[in-house]
């Protein structure tokens, strides 16, 4: 056996070892530890941010990548949990003691379906429960983060918030040349011409690219319509602004994507003034404590907020059997 073949064999062994290690870590991270330890969890904790009497304004925090992939994952439990957030949004909407809702949005976006489910739930709360919904943007409220903000009665951003990134993205890897260099062949048996579309082991054809572009264009049109409806903005204006770029909060205010600049407290003050609730109490609704939340929060504090977001994005991509369309801003 010549040196080239020995080298290729060595690379293959290393890749196998890395793959095995990664599968082990993925299994560990995806274990439902809360179910394993059977620790009960209180549904919600109410933390008073500002004291008041009479009316109540509920603050719900959406922090992290909007995803619904293995919500029991260690990486995800301390951050965003899609099912849990939708349930909390629904419960707060139905809570007769709550008069208004502020969503504190800090997310680079995420899945197309997940973002749309949150959007629809916000519209439902406004229409069926007649409650105002304001959005207070944090560091980032981009792509899917802006999609879910669009139907709000008022959007308030910090001047340095990163928002916008209006658009859809779908990505995959192509390892064809590397496989050729290593002498690795992929055998594919398929029932139809496009069954392995976006395969990582060969070049994409022009026809396949056209099929996927049509899908992306349709999803983008839905994104545009959400902003047209939510912001009362012309389609041509939305498409002009929606070329995928991000805007600072100040830029977004200048072009009409947000209504005002300010903090969470200033957003609450705006709601009090707009609805004549001068003494309204400001209360944050937090998910109750549980083992998963504790462990997930510990992991995220160890890796840091930005790194945790990147790991969550990686998890979102890896948990799917194939590439998926996303409303996602990633650097």
UniProtKB/TrEMBL annotation:
Superkingdom assignment: Bacteria
Database matches in Pfam families: Peptidase_S49
Keywords: Hydrolase, Protease, Serine protease
Residues in Peptidase S49 domain copies: 128-274
CDD domains found in the cross-reference section: S49_Sppa_N_C
InterPro entries per UniProt: ClpP/crotonase-like_dom_sf, Pept_S49_SppA, Peptidase_S49, S49_SppA_C
Family as reported in the entry's similarity comment: Belongs to the peptidase S49 family.
Protein name: Signal peptide peptidase SppA
Species assigned in the record: Lentibacillus salinarum
Gene, per the UniProt record: sppA
